[in-house]
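Format is sequence with structure; example below:
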Amino acid sequence: MIPSSVELFVIGGGINGVGIAADAAGRGISTLVCERGDLGGGTSSASSKLIHGGLRYLEQFAFRLVRESLKEREILQRKAPHIIHPLEFILPYQQALRPVWMIHAGLFLYDHLGGHQKLPSSKKVDLQQIEAGTPLNKELKTGFSYHDCWVDDARLVILNAIAARQKGATLLTRMRCIHAEQLKKGWEIVMEDVQSGRQSKTHANVLINAAGPWVDIVNQQVLHRTDEQLVSLVKGSHIVVNKFYAGNHGYILQNFDKRIIFVTPFAENFALIGTTDVLYGSKLDEVTVSNEEISYLLHAINQYFSHHFITDDVVWSYAGVRPLKLDSKHKATEISRDYSLELDDSVKSSPLLTVIGGKITTYRRLAEHALEKLAPYFLNAGAPWTQSAVLPGGDMNSLQEFLQELQQDFSWLPKSLMRRYASSYGRLSYSLLNSCKSVTDLGKYFGADLYEIEIEYLCRQEWAKTLDDILWRRTKLGLLMSEEEKSKLEKWFKERFH
């Protein structure tokens, strides 16, 4: 049911859009989110999967951004311990790239800028004496260890969307905002169902453009405002290979162009490598990884590891476009990752807030800042609340402790499936498993630990409408399923849901 009137209308169901919606709804503001595709279907599910301060941003003297990010890293660990966990990074030292004093100074700042941190402090390590040094080239002898956090980015979006819904927000997916007219008081907004073409209208007091890379397009084609460009579009690409080292740590590699490359564990049996920084000017619906980017990433890791990687080693790749604040003076890699909130209140009773830039780590604080800017328009709104509230499923002391709880209640569940449910859904696993008493209650089996009951749950509770939503965003099981299994699943899915 689409409400005829709301206080706040948000265009865009990425991490910033749903983060703002959850915060606003939790303050008692009636909120509607309109997303033309899947929640988190763009940039928000195409990140490096890290909650981090941004070690390299220190070289750009972005101390405020790093400090805020480190503080948020601490908060987000508490909010979602099921999908966010600490990750040790090994930084092999290359004398020709950065002097050792610079690395020491950078890591010292990184340890202390955010105030008290519960993650271990950085330290110097002998690569010849630790397991993490084994896959590296033998001439690399010295390294550094520090910690950040890994996140399932697509699930972070979904959990914020669920939180928004629990607080009363309406979230519409596969719904395109095609026109928004600024009235003397509020906005009249026209939406169109992407599949049926059916149109609907609503009225909103306040409008937020949180369309990410599409922010300029929305500004020009939906809001019919100035053609002025607000964002620089920078593509970041990642590749996935079979995991080639033991342990649950990652690597941060200095490249000879002064950029850095992350290598992190991914989906149990794989390693994720990224990212690139390429100015982007093509169609936003056709973002792909180029052969040049694949070669760039492979060349970067081949400088460090004894295994020589070739194109055939790449089992999957993905790309996303970062909507960074317009900057024509700097190279793509040097454009700030900080966010900007542009409030247009020239028509006093019909404000427009445009969200520019940002990184997944700071989405929660961005949402708070957005509500601070809009406070004069929501005089009866509640106080900030998201800092201490856990995200759906995150009500646990630790993932390990919760696993033991699941084991007691569902001892018949296969161990690998139990771990995946726990680390994907947390306490929401109980909603998924509900009345199941044995494996047969999970329904039809499709391979790679995917059962009918999970698909039903994702479609019913998590806005999944296509197999891509399920296999590549809600789960990453597309990596593990054979082509034959995918084909059978596709046939069943079409019969069941269409």
Summary: The chain has three domains: 5-43+155-230+337-377, 64-71+83-149+232-322, 399-497. DSSP finds 13 helices and 20 strands in the chain. The radius of gyration is 23 Å. The chain has a mean pLDDT of 95.
